[in-house]
């Protein structure tokens, strides 16, 4: 039985919104534009955080990573923010971290918004297979079994997706790493949790009263 049942209209609307958000983040431009082809290629200014929706949601990058402010996509369905290593984006020396592409997709504020469950997040990705699903403290997290290789040069097919609620906004997270680089497993899970914690911490401080 589908989890999107007729007696849960709010959840049905959320399913449509979540699927649209995931589709938008998956259809962003060439990964080469995000400075992921290797250090030294970019000359952008390092941006560690980006406020959205008047500061209600603040995208803050984990240590070693920066916001690619030049390639933020703003649309009526969602705003999508890409993140990558600071060194690859700026061409300057930073503490080395595992190469990755992360995206943060933020839906417009909705009254009564609730954090999606891991099962709901997995269902929104169907028919793609999900190998792990967990409902953590403030984030639903799944590991997707295939498709990541389309997002990064030499990318690992396995990647992570997450969903959370921040000040009335549904926020989707995604993490793509390179083949056999570690981010498709436990290291990626930790980085997703770090990203979620940084985002929630920054947004709580910046949210309007």
Task: Record the SSE blueprint.
Elements: H1 9-26, E1 49-52, E2 57-60, E3 65-67, E4 73-74, E5 79-85, H2 86-90, E6 100-106, H3 118-124, E7 130-135, E8 140-144, E9 159-166, E10 169-177, H4 186-206
Antiparallel strand pairs: 1-2, 3-5, 4-5, 5-6, 6-10, 7-8, 8-9, 9-10
Features:
single chain; 209 residues; alpha+beta; eight-stranded antiparallel beta sheet; two-stranded antiparallel ribbon; 10 strands
Distance between the termini: 41 Å
Decide which structural class fits the backbone: alpha+beta
What's the β-strand tally? 10
Shape: globular
Please give the oligomerization state of what you see.
Answer: single chain
With helices defined by DSSP (H or I, 4 residues minimum), what is the helix count?
A: 4
Condensed summary:
With 209 residues, the chain is α+β, with helices and mostly antiparallel strands. It has helices spanning 9-26, 86-90, 118-124, 186-206; strands at residues 49-52, 57-60, 65-67, 73-74, 79-85, 100-106, 130-135, 140-144, 159-166, 169-177.
Describe this structure as you would to a colleague:
- With 209 residues, the chain is α+β, with helices and mostly antiparallel strands.
- Strand 7 and strand 8 form a beta hairpin.
- The longest helix is centred in the last third of the chain and has 21 residues, at 186-206.
- It has helices at residues 9-26, 86-90, 118-124, 186-206, and strands at residues 49-52, 57-60, 65-67, 73-74, 79-85, 100-106, 130-135, 140-144, 159-166, 169-177.
């Amino acid at each position: 039985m589908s989890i999107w049942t007729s007696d849960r209209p709010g959840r049905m609307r959320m399913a449509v919104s979540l699927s649209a958000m995931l589709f938008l983040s998956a259809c962003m431009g060439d990964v080469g534009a995000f400075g992921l082809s290797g250090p030294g290629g970019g000359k952008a200014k390092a941006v560690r955080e980006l406020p959205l929706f008047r500061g209600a949601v603040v995208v803050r990058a984990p240590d070693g990573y920066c916001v690619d402010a030049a390639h933020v996509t703003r649309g009526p369905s969602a705003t999508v923010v890409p993140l990558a290593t600071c060194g690859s984006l700026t061409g300057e020396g930073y503490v080395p971290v595992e190469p990755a592409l992360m995206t943060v997709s933020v839906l417009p504020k909705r009254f009564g918004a609730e954090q999606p469950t891991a099962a709901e997040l997995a269902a929104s990705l169907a028919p793609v297979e999900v190998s792990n699903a967990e409902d953590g403290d403030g984030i639903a997290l799944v590991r997707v079994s295939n498709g990541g290789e389309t997002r990064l040069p030499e990318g690992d097919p396995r990647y992570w997706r997450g969903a959370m609620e921040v000040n009335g906004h549904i926020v989707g997270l995604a993490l793509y790493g390179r083949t056999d680089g570690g981010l498709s497993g436990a290291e990626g899970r930790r980085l997703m949790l770090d990203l979620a914690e940084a985002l929630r911490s920054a947004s709580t401080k910046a949210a309007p009263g």
